[in-house]
Amino acid sequence: MEKVLKDSDDNLYKVKKLLDESHEIVDRIKALKAEKAQLKPLCGSLRRRMIRCGKKNCRCRKGQLHGPYNYFVPSKCRGKWQYITEEDITKIEQGVADWKKQKKIDAEIKDVLARLKEIRREMTGLIPATE
Ligand SMILES: [Zn+2]
After folding, report:
1. 60 located within any domain
2. What residue spans of 1-131 are helical by DSSP H?
3. Could you report the per-residue pLDDT of 18-43, keeping only the tens digit for each?
4. Which of 8, 53, 89, 93 is buried most, with the most CB atoms less than 10 Å from its CB?
5. Is 131 inside a domain boundary?
């Protein structure tokens, strides 16, 4: 009998630890979502590119290309380059950085949610069935 009580105390302790951990996870998810809400992500990358103009007798015809010019390349529709002016560069760079950050945040949220599921499973095994 004593042994059974002890096991049950251990279980309660484990359940408490798991509950604490799940509360921490919920807080972490809230923080990550708040951080994500601040981002202005641009899905793509910034590239510098030399170009050939359309003029017949231009130096670029002989290999002396113009540029470099800055372009934003959306990641899902390759080939659709968007010319970026010098003053917009910082904004675009920030957007691209935000996009990378957003991917990291999404990955972490996915991880902690998986852990939360695991905790629920562990707790189910620890809480005795009541009759
Ligand atoms: Zn040219």
Report:
1. yes
2. 2-38, 89-126
3. 999 999 999 999 999 999 999 999 99
4. 93
5. no
Range of the domain at 96: 2-126
Long-range contacts for 28-32 (Cβ within 8 Å, ≥24 apart)? 28/112, 29/109, 29/112, 29/113, 32/105, 32/108, 32/109, 32/112
Distance 61 CA to ligand 1 centre (A): 7
Q: How many domains does the chain have?
A: 1
CA of 49 to the centre of ligand 1 (A): 14
Cα(37) to centroid(ligand 1), Å: 44
Give the pLDDT confidence of 90-100 residue by residue, as tens digits.
999 999 999 99
> What's the pTM?
0.74
Residue 105 falls within a domain, yes or no?
Answer: yes
Measured in Å, residue 56 CA sits from the centre of ligand 1 at 8
Please tell me the distance between residue 64's alpha carbon and the centre of ligand 1 in angstroms: 8
Cα-to-centroid distance, 121 and ligand 1 (Å):
66
Ligand 1 midpoint to CA 65 (Å): 6
Q: Tell me the CA–centroid distance for residue 23 and ligand 1, in Å.
A: 62
